[in-house]
Amino acid sequence: MRRPISDFSLCPPGRNPDAMSEVVGTVNTMSEREYDLIVIGAGPVGENVADRAVQAGLTAAIVETELVGGECSYWACMPSKALLRSAAALRAARDVDGAKQAVTGDLDIAAVLRRRDTMTSNYDDSGQVQWLQGAGIDLVRGHGTLTGEKTVRVTAADGTTTDLVARHAVAVCTGSAALLPDIPGLADISPWTSREATAVEQIPASLAIIGGGVVGAEMATAFQSLGSDVTIIARSGLLGGNEPFAGELVADSLRERGVTVKTGADTTSARRDDDGRATLELSDGTTVTADEVLVAIGRTPRTQDLGVDAVGLTPGAWLDVDDTLLVRGFDWLYAVGDVNHRALLTHQGKYQARAAGDVIAARAKGDEIDDAPWGAHVATADHDAVPQVTFTDPEVASVGLTAKKAEEKGLNVKVLDYDLASVAGSSEQSDAYVGKARAIVDLDRGVLVGATFVGPDIAELLHSATIAIVGEVPVKRLWHAVPSYPTVSEVWLRLLETLGRDSA
What is the value of pTM for the model shown? Predict the structure, then answer.
């Protein structure tokens, strides 16, 4: 059985079904069908909710109006990392003497785009559909809306409707969309969102990016490497949700590569000039002109046209849930993934989905519910143990609390900093390594509560910190977790030495 593209990098190529009205699986085109669970949204989150419920013995239908596999598979995680990886590999080779002499050419842009298309299965979801069939999940293509308690109407592209009735639960897994700010003239210039950026077919000569978050920083990195003259406009520094040094190191790297990084300014208006180029007016009195403009200032929930008003909720609002992902005030409606605004990350949504699918099944069967912190039926990690990697150069990997957030929570912490370039493994990895590590230790409990790593290829270092935080491993015990030499992970020893051996 094939796993979803959200679990593996590739989905087998094939023909995408043309008729968006098709019903796949055991469903026939009928006016009404009944299931234990109805899932709206067939992205990685919806797939996992349905899969867990079906594995537990429930029946499930999943509704999707676009491609099965969702945003991450086709317009976000997978294509964006494909756009970034080739240049990252090239830079890594050029940073090591002996290897750099062998690098005689430049990046093959056409090959990068072909690899991106491979990662998205050429925007063909037939492999995903095949996986749903094998998993025993029925797919109903069309736009799903809530019409009342436990009822969903699916409107196909041809206008025909199918009413689905849930015996136990409806799970909203519709995700989020790019937020377009109300800037005069912006809508008139046809700005890019992350979808247009990751699906690009022709690299623009110049690109202006509004927003300094993860999408903005990653796309600035990608398009600079692909040959665009890039300007990034950020109200404050880059990567504001991270430790300040993370955004500073990324900004320094971007500037070194020729990216113009403008901070402390807002975009006040936008227009297309006679030559077709876009001009942005900024609050500091300057202007930025570029062939294309990418807006990357945040996300908005996909609840505007979901029919949530039929059950007393507000269209366009985030759906507030408890730790079992149940929408507050309901005993049948769940909201999982981005749409609940707990942690807008694919992996975190999938984590929520496994808990939600299991608890839906448990409640349906009358089984005991394990909803204590860190229980099988809750998404406790959403609060203080969310891991995230930003695939810039250098990479930024973080989990848990920043120093500022720990202070705001009133914790008695010690901040441990270490220069990653001083670790033996980093000197072996790169002749020009630049990076920094920070660990946040709760002194009262003697455990790690946060970690941030910035440097080349440090993404794979993050899970060790995640395990330490989730497992609440005492720092005294971490002294006995010996890092291999010479590796970048030796920074764990150096951080503990900064804390002091008397902690053991």
Answer: 0.92
